[in-house]
Amino acid sequence: MNTVMALLIGMLYASGMYMVLRRSMVKLIIGLALLSHAANLLIFTMATLRRDRPPLIDEGETALAAPYADPVPQALILTAIVIGFAVSAFAAIMIYRVYQTTGTDDLDQLHTTDS
Amino acid sequence: MVLAVIAPALHRVAPEHTGRVLALAVAALFSVFALTPHEAAPLVYAWAPSLDLHVSLLFDGLGKLMALIVSGIGSLILLYANGYLHGDARLPRLYATLLAFMGAMLGVVLGGNLLFIFVCWELTSVTSFILIGFDHERPAARAAALQALLVTGAGGLCLLAGVILLGQAAGSYELGALASAPGLREHGLYVPALLLILAGAFTKSAQVPFHFWLPGAMEAPTPISAYLHSATMVKAGVVLLARLNPALGGTELWFGMLCGFGGATMLLGNLGSLLLTDLKRVLAYSTVGMLGTLVLLIGIGTQAALAACVTMLLAHALYKGALFMVAGGVDHAVHTRDTTRLSGLGRAMPITWAAASMAALSCMGVLPLLGFIAKEKSYVAALGAPEFALWIVAASLVASAAAFAMAAIVGVRPFMGRPMEQGAHAHEGSFDLWLGPMLLGVCSLWLGATAGWPMAELLEAAAGSIYGSEFEVALKLWAGTEGVYGQALLLSGATVAIGAFLFALRAPLRSLAGGLSFATALAPQRVYQLLYDGSLGVAAQITRRVQNGLLNSYVRTVVLTLVGISLWSLWRQPHLVVSFSVGEIRTYEIGIVALILVSCLVAVRSESRMAAIVALGVAGLGVTLVFALFSGPDLAMTQIMVETLTVLLFVLVFYHLPQYARLSSSFERVRDLVVSLIFGGLMTLLVLAASTDILDAPLSEFYAQNSLIKGHGRNVVNVILVDFRALDTLGEITVLAAAAIGVVAMLRLKPAHKEGA
Amino acid sequence: MNSLILRTTTGFLLSLLVLFSVYLMLRGHNAPGGGFIGGLTATAALTLYAFAFDVATVRKMLRIDPLSVAGLGLVLALVSGLPGMLGGDAFLTSRWAVLALPGGTEIHLGTPLLFDFGVYLVVIGVGCAVLLTMAEERGE
After folding, report:
1. Residue A108 to residues A105, B258, B676: CA-CA distances in angstroms?
2. Do C131 and B649 touch (CB under 8 A)?
């Protein structure tokens, strides 16, 4: 499964990067979203994939019984997902405002507005 | 003592109050300093203990002496500023920065930890930048301020590097620990550390070849020049050297560097001052010369030299502060500072005249003023120098003679002779204007006539703290004529003679030597200008080349660099294992992976925005399923909610955005595709290489064991988020809130013409 | 969107979903859930309501500005860190009190619960602020 996941993550990264390299701002945002999926899966896979061993302590126990899915990367990813949402929202709305102001969504035309 | 630290905070109340109130406040500070007995043990407050960074205040002899000078002259300057810039709207700003500067300066002179001293040191650089550029509407003032900042800033960087090296070598940044650190002078880092620290101190104290910024800094209004460039900031370098003398002094290199540069500066400054005609610039050059003398004396390092150094420090602060203020008063009265035109002001400005005379006489080193004692002491020190005594004596003689002539030009000449034309309107300045110089002048006289009472004991302690241990400083007005004292007296006589000669010859000297030595004196200035313009040019070139404004090329550069570096470091891994193992896999899992892949491709290839968004959502659902299958229920729940909201938001936003258009050429597409595939390939490789358990298992183990016991929760992920690592989560929700504020601000704040839409 | 069916069902759904989100938040310490998930659920519920009726209705229902909700959440999270600090430990060190109810059940009450509630409010505030403001943009 690891190998399959590795290929999937590579593919997600590649498509995300390709979208980021486009000139359209809309595609840029979709690319960012894909990249954040890729990153989350990357962390998740690196921490070893385990089926049906959620990091929940069973009733009556006082500690997680091994083997368990590593809770630390999960906590990381959970915050990453939510932050990812905030980033996407921020980027999307910024691009919307840029389009409203400049009338273009072509990134290459924006460099003239840089001073 | 605590007042020293809150001095910068004082400025918040400044705008409402006049300079007089502030002057009183600072004078109160002065008396607090005066009444506090000095002691050798530092007061330590931990600041960042892990970096060995403590706010330790060292109120020893030197610290007390400097604190008295800083606060005493500071209070007079505040008063003086009140008169000098009366009614100026920028006055509150001046007070505020002056006080902030004063606080920083007190930190430098009282600091007992090198890092703390450095922080305050940089603060003085920054505040002095603001002060020199006070007339920020004038380009000359801006340029001078920038120059001062760049020179002292560059020196500050050297100093930081030197301080860190020194700390590494000695194992501590505390001055007390440094002085007693064994074998510091033999340490391999001693030489580089010393050279770097000297570079810092020399730039700050305007030693050759960094002296040029100080005369330039005379663009500032007179109160500022008087304060920064007579009494305080330029002395910071000297104080630092004095502070480090017990730790670093006593080596050949120390002696050579300090005496060499100090001596050269002394000569150049004092002689240079004779060639100029602007009152303030004359004083500035003479200050440069005096700083050279102080550095030279520290370099000699004998007891006599250090005694001379502290006496000179005090004498100079008193008379140079007074002279600067007199210069300002004269400028204020007749609107010129040209020494060749000023004359006969004595009658119109009797009080200023009296103050100027006292200060000038002290500067000349005439009996019975403090300057005389200081000069005698420095001659004794020069005579007792371990090496090159003859050279040092000769240089001191020339320098003192030049100082004599300079003082005559500045402090005596303008008030004598025929009244000048503009003199008709000359009038005595207000109380604020003459009180400062008058008090300082009286101090010079008093301290000289009483042989230092009540300061003698303090000077002794100050010299002792530079030397490293206490010793006796005999402060006498008349030391007798035996031995070295006789020789010193003889030299004083010679000083007066040569000085008078130089004064008489000032005009021909100016015209004769003017052109020639000016070229040499200004050479470093030219080097500075070249370096400055050059670095600006290079920066502009680089910016044009690199910052082309195209996101695509930025991202490509970053990605390719990243790939290159990663591959290189992977290549160098000795035990790189890339394991291809399909292992156990279930059919529906393949289905999920395929789902993500397909939707991802659709999102990329689609010509319709809505299709792309939907595909993105489907990919997110796939990811959710992966989380759910592999034991991440919290992740799955979060992901699915976020995915829903993201799709919703994107629909809302894209509704307003234009349809896709084909913007890139086929070549660009292929190029980007290649870059992306390389990047994706690298990430695959990384996952494969890292699939052995690299994450810190003990950490997870800790959470697994303690979640229920300490965190009272069975859901370990949640316990980590809200208990064990709650601070991280707090940071995260703060970021969320900030993002939301940003979003709302972007949407609500429209350009004016869209209002009401 | 003017659908009678949507409107009718959403009326029920909203209270149900918000209740569910609180439940998710509270049980988060022991089972999948927590402030983030609960907050997102509540946001989704409110957004659904906004689509069924309109944004103004939701704003009126919230009574206070979504950003203020987020601010309140931040303050709560900060406050939850204080008891630990007052007790001499690091900021945000947890404090627990065990409440014994008649009938043998115990309720563990602690500062992390307050913290999680803060997270919950921040997520709702942020989500609503972004989505509602953007939805209003549509009307122009």
Report:
1. 9, 58, 19
2. yes
Pick the range with the lowest mean pLDDT from A28-37, B52-61, B201-210, B240-249: B52-61
Chain B residues touching A41 at Cβ < 8 A:
623, 626
Phi (first) and psi of residue B146, to 5 degrees:
-60, -40
Total tally of structural domains belonging to chain C? 1
Task: Inform me whether the pLDDT recorded for B36 exceeds 70.
Answer: no
B9 to chain A, any CB pair closer than 8 A? The answer is: no
Residue of A nearest to B557 (CA): A21
Residues of chain C with pLDDT under 50: 140
Instruction: Name the token pair of B680.
Output: 């994706």
CA–CA separation, B460 and B452 (whole Å)? 10
Distance CA B153, CA B141 (A): 17
- Single out the residue of C82, B617, B395 nearest to residue A37, CA to CA: B617
Residue B43: φ, ψ to 5°: -90, 130
Give residue A38's pLDDT: 92
For residues B403 and B319, the answer to whether their CB atoms sit within 8 Å is: no
Please tell me which of A42-56, B375-389, B630-644, C77-91 the model is most confident about, judged by mean pLDDT: B630-644
Do B654 and A26 count as a contact with CB atoms less than 8 A apart?
A: yes
B292 and B269 Cβ atoms separated by less than 8 Å: yes
The whole-number average pLDDT for the span B350-378 is 78
Rounded Cα distance, B365 and B495, in Å:
9
> What's the rounded Cα separation, in Å, for the pair B155 and B122?
10
First to last CA, chain C: 16
| Burial category of B511 from C-beta neighbours within 10 Å (exposed 0-12, middle 13-18, buried 19 and up) | exposed
DSSP secondary structure code for residue B752 in this structure = G
- Give dist(CA B354, CA B497) in Å, integer: 24
pLDDT of residue B5: 44
Average pLDDT over residues A89-99: 86
Q: How far apart are CA A4 and CA B610, in angstroms?
A: 29
Q: B497 pLDDT exceeds 80? A: no
Side-chain half-sphere exposure of B605, counting CA atoms within 13 A:
6
- Does residue B417 have a pLDDT over 80? no
Domain spanning A2-51+68-107, CATH architecture: Orthogonal Bundle (1.10)
**In chain A, which among 80-109 make CB contacts under 8 A with chain B?**
81-90, 92-97, 99-101, 105-108
Nearest-by-CA chain B residue for C73? B733
- Which residues constitute the domain of residue C40? 4-138
pLDDT computed for residue B580 by the predictor: 64
Task: State how far the alpha carbon of B754 is from the alpha carbons of A86, B748, B751, in Å.
Answer: 26, 11, 6
CA distance A17 to chain C (A): 26
The two tokens of residue B697 are 């298992």
Contacts of A54 in chain C (CB under 8 A): 32
d(CA B517, CA B513): 6
pLDDT in the model for residue B51: 58
Lowest mean pLDDT among B36-45, B314-323, B339-348, B737-746: B36-45
- Tell whether the model's pLDDT for residue B470 goes beyond 80: no
Per-residue tokens: B276: 């100029």
d(CA B585, CA A6): 14
